[in-house]
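Trying the structure run again after the queue cleared.
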Amino acid sequence: MSHLCFDVSIEDAIAHVVLSRPEKRNSMVPEFWEELPAIVSDIDQNARARVIVISSTGPHFTAGLDVSSFSGESLLPGSTNDPELARMQRGAQLYATITRLQKTFTALEACRLPVLVAIQGGCIGGGVDLITACDMRYATEDAFITIFETNIGMTADVGTFPRISKLIPDGLARELAFTGRRMPAQEAAAIGLVNRVFPSHDEMLKGVMEVAQDIAAKAPLTLYGVKRMMNHARDHSTADSLDYIATWNASMLHLEEIGEAMAANAEQRPGKFAPLPRTVKSAH
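Done. Tokens:
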């Protein structure tokens, strides 16, 4: 299946999703918001891979939301001559648009697979919403992030604020949010927002794929459980999370997978693990 905003390939249980509009700085046009969750859902629900890598093309990871392409959707005049009622209609329309866009990045967080993202150049505005919904972030030396919405009179609304303060110290998150300043890759690495910084785009992709290969060698059901437990622990108390993981393992622990993992490690061979079950019927 072809996409306007992405190229997708799957090899050795790794799905590589590439932003593919470098001439437009990979700006997020309406098709972007529909294609990304559909791609992630297909990979996840049809168990096509064990890990997802998101990368980009051109000088910048993404310029963020293409505001001009949405102006007609959410800012249309109301269908009434009553100014107050028209304002309410526009507000309801904009609310529906925002919540729909939020679901695009929540799909990355909610899917069963680990999601790694490789960032080069500018990660601007909506790009920050995207990368904070991923499990791990990597960057080139020339990369930077900016919560750019602040600079154009907007409050970022597609996922940055609920997530970034859980990834970095709250004071730094607020500084980025209030100022809209650029945070360079080395600073992002120093505070733990990105896992590693690479000299070039090619070296970054090589390094990220090595991490992805390491992950893909693990039991898919284990990866699913790890992601589920870590996301739950982030959003709940320690006591709740301890109970949740006990309940999860009471029903989901597979002794056969443990035995196979131990044997594979001892014999220095790839493990033969059960795949994730498909959750929908394949269209192919």
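The CA atoms of residues 263 and 269 lie 8 Å apart. Worth checking whether this holds up in the mutant runs.
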